[in-house]
Amino acid sequence: MDRFLFMISEKYLNHFVSICLILAISFAVYSNSLKNDFVNYDDSWLVLENKKIKAINFDNICRMFSEPTASDYLPLKELSYALDYHFWRLKPLGFHLTNVILFMINCLLVYLLTLKIFEDKALSFFSSLLFTLHPIHAEAVNWISARKDVLSGMFFFLSLLFYVLAFKITGIKKNLYFISSIISFIFALFSKPSVIILPFLLPLFDYCFLAEKKVFRIERTIIRILPFLVIAGLSTIITLSVASEKEVVKTYWGDSPYLTFLAMLGVVFDYIKLLLFPINLNVRYEVPFPPSFSDIRIIAGAILLIAFIVIFFKFRKNNKLVGFCLMWFLITLIPVSNLIPIAILKADRYLYLPSFAFTLGLSLIIFKLCNLEEISGTVLSENILSSFPLKKGDGVGFLSSFYKYLVFIIFFLISLSCFVLTFSRNTVWKDGLTLWLDTIKKSPEDCLVHNNLGTIYIDKGDHEKGLKHIKEALEINPYYWDAHFNLATIYSKKGKYEQALKELKTVLELNPNFFRAYINAGNIYRQIGATDKAIEAYKKAIEIDKKSGDPHYNLALLFSNNGLFDDAVKEYKEAIKLDPTLAKAYNNLGNIYFKKGLFKEAIEEYKIAVRQNPNLYEVYNNLGSALNEAGNSNEAIKYLKIAARLKKTEIIPHLNLGKIYMEKKMFKDAIEEFERVLDLKPDYYQSHISLGLIFLSLKNKEKAIEHFIKSLSLNPKDKTSEEFLKKINPAN
């Protein structure tokens, strides 16, 4: 028994400890990201306004796979959002937690993959530790809209791990692992199309790690990767068709493949610099354009690119580990190299997969520099730290221990630095304000940065700062329609409707299919009483986007405000049909039923609204009022208390509670509610009237007189208080 336990311990203990450490460290380094909010950088339309994620049902899942939300085909990413919403609604904690968990799984897979390839626990642990802590991943983990990177990365590494395992065993499990690798690859493509490069990494693995065993044959490799190539081809067709349908097919930067190529040479140099020195990370890098070949960055990038290729071919036989790292880095950069034009030249998240080669290569270099391994084969020893090749003699044990500690110290210092940098970078992603304030320092000439910072200030009610940044965005790029739209929003909130309509007209000239510009124009016309123009604008929005419920909702508001309740009901129902999660539509529909005295129908609509959005205080207040009118005062009290708790500064729930308590002769509770109203709004004289009536019922004339007098002091025209004072004291 003791021997058995010793074998178990010897084989699994260190492995188990390594796994636990990687998982613990990967969680710890991103633990403060769980406090972060959504940011106004794609999170709004990909998550907060994405109707498809608001319900997990067959129809919605079909829509995820058939109606791409963005310009890429990412159904699994949307499905992951739907799962988050199902459990967390729109609490950012849940979405960030999923990103962190996915990253933890990625780090574990990197460790297992490295272990299976190189069969060395020390190398696997240290390289995966560097991957875990590297600050370059902060964008992919913190940014909820970048879920595709950690999600596709998980399936990418899983596919490669299954592929490696298929060569470690024989029999039926071999085929199962191979099929699992293919399925994982499909899932990776459904998460992010750029993982299409995986089939080109498989021959690299075959060449670097099977040739030593004399089993490498190019024809065998082609047969093995053929299913992956077919799937990659189909994915390419889908991706291009989606991009074409969404009309987002990009042209080369400056309409020049040559200039784009030059710019990307400089970016390659920047990427290596960022991996080596991950400081001054940025969400929106400013890449010099048009580039010049005299730029030292471009020259350095060209030299590095040539050097990588030369080194690979020079050492492809004698040092395949180095070749593997170099080619992995270059191959995984291909999808983001703008060989096929994409929207952005440079981003931290683009280094998510290439960083695997960097952290592995850096670990190998440190071991080599510390004389711990003669890196000349394809597979390292089982324990790299105990394989230091020294001649026998005095002091060898001391030197061996010295080098081991040196490796540990180097990795500890690098890891500690990376931990601090990553932990600090997470705070930049706290919310939209912190993100764009950091970014604007580094990219002051980026119109998107000014625009997004401006929208943050608008949302916070600081229209002057918002206006300043929106105008700066338009100075940088006068054709930036999004900034014109936000400028119209500011003018509208300031009551400058003519200027707002002028900006919306500019928006529609630049982007004729932006239906929200018509909605906002309709809202302005509604506010100024131009009903016919408002209806025309809303109907134009409906014509452009027949799948959105928002134009119908706003049209219903217009009809309701004009007393056309039947038309309003029709439009609210159409809005709900198109968007079953539109809580405000259920609430307003309930309000119409309430006005008609249809309390049962109103209650039904309010309860649906509560299920769709549990954070709207007015829905709970309306539901409480409807329940009270329907004779269910006890349940009404429950919902009114929730309304009061959700919005502590609002007096209406307290007023309604006070009235119900008065009707139920629960005077002590009623007094508390009306006094709470006066705490929130001291000049609300009606509460003094109610308190006066309560104290009259309690036979406390002095208190009643006090409140009636206070009411009259606030409103000298208060006839109710005047009449009760005369009744209490006829002599006066």
UniProtKB/TrEMBL annotation:
It comes from the Bacteria. It holds the Pfam family TPR_16. Keywords: Membrane, Repeat, TPR repeat, Transmembrane, Transmembrane helix. The keyword Transmembrane helix applies. InterPro entries: O-mannosyl-transferase_TMTC, TPR-like_helical_dom_sf, TPR_2, TPR_rpt. Coiled coil: none annotated. The chain crosses the membrane at residues 12-30, 93-113, 125-144, 150-169, 176-202, 222-244, 256-276, 296-315, 322-344, 350-370, 402-423. TPR repeats lie at residues 447-480, 481-514, 515-548, 549-582, 583-616, 617-650, 651-684, 685-718. This is Uncharacterized protein.
